[in-house]
Design goal:
This protein has 175 residues and is mostly beta strands. The chain is built from two helices and seven strands.
Length: 175
Amino acid sequence: SWEDEVMAVRAERDRFFAEHYASPLPEDMIEGFTGLTYFPPAPEWRLHASYTPEDPHRVSIPSSSGSTSEYTRLGTATLELEGEAWVVAVLDDGDGNPFIASRDGTSGSETYAGGRYVDVVPERDGSATIDFNAARNPWCVYDEEFVCPLPPPQNTTDVRITAGERNAEQSAAPQ
């Protein structure tokens, strides 16, 4: 089922954090690591969007370190949130994978203030799937050695997107 897939992806991410040599967790945090904290899977946050590709071009994106980083902008995705169109910039993650860096009404309370990342899966027909159940914190949340892009202003909404990864300190119960 879709929910089983969401849980399998989360288990794999936890395993990566706990065991992989490239884990973003500092060594002193790995020993007590029991897994990341997530909102429960919510199918209503698996959204279909229209995707408008652009000629890929470089853009400067503010980063968590206060500097800016160059990213390739691939286009825009238009989602519907609470009856309103939300047009977000789609960037290349550096490996050719489209993603959005976004902030929402949970940012700074239930989720990382600097926003979260979610993959964009474009389809041939001009649509795209954006599943916020897979929204993840950037690695700079776990280790300040990492520099992470912050969401461009258009990628911010006041709507509370209660899906995906949460702040660790927000765990009321294991997920």
